[in-house]
Hints:
- The protein is of the alpha/beta class.
- The protein has helices at residues 12-23, 38-51, 61-77, 84-103, 146-149, 161-172; strands at 3-7, 27-34, 54-59, 108-110, 115-119, 125-129, 152-153.
- The strands form two sheets. It has a five-stranded parallel β-sheet with strand order 3-2-1-4-7, sandwiched between helices.
- Helix 1 links the parallel strand 1 and strand 2 (27-34).
- Helix 1 crosses helix 6 and helix 3 runs antiparallel to helix 4 (84-103).
Amino acid sequence: MSKVVLGFSGGVDSAVSAVLLQKAGHEVHGVYLDNAEESARLDAVSAAERMGIALTVIDVKRELEENVCRPFTEAYLRGETPNPCIICNPSVKFRTLIAVADRIDAELVATGHYARIEVDGEGLSHLLPAADAEADQSAALAGLPQEVLAKLVLPLGEFTKAEVAEMLADTAE
């Protein structure tokens, strides 16, 4: 059984990702990137407890301000139209998830993004659009380097948003 660090908010997508990873035989360790009000953090902690997964809470407010918000604002004021997710994913979110994975000897990192990973014959990992074109989030992950893609698992990539919501309802029963 491999250990997986999962970006975990406690919402539908991360909760279903946790269930799918557990069903696949992985030991799931959630990481909540704290950048919001206390109630959001408490919701994530409560969801992790209900699901029986370990959860690490990491305050990323300073990193977000320095690496995402400030550069976003500067680019916007220059007349550009930056995408904060494309800035955040490699500089904050995945950097933090990989650091936790390294610290706890987890082989893989996962999120609830709707996209897919394919490994080619040479062992290189490639990002693909989600099976559900309307839910696809592959563009937000496009800036991730090969060393992240090689460890990345995207459990929701083959499902539609409706199927994921149905899976959550089924696990709540």
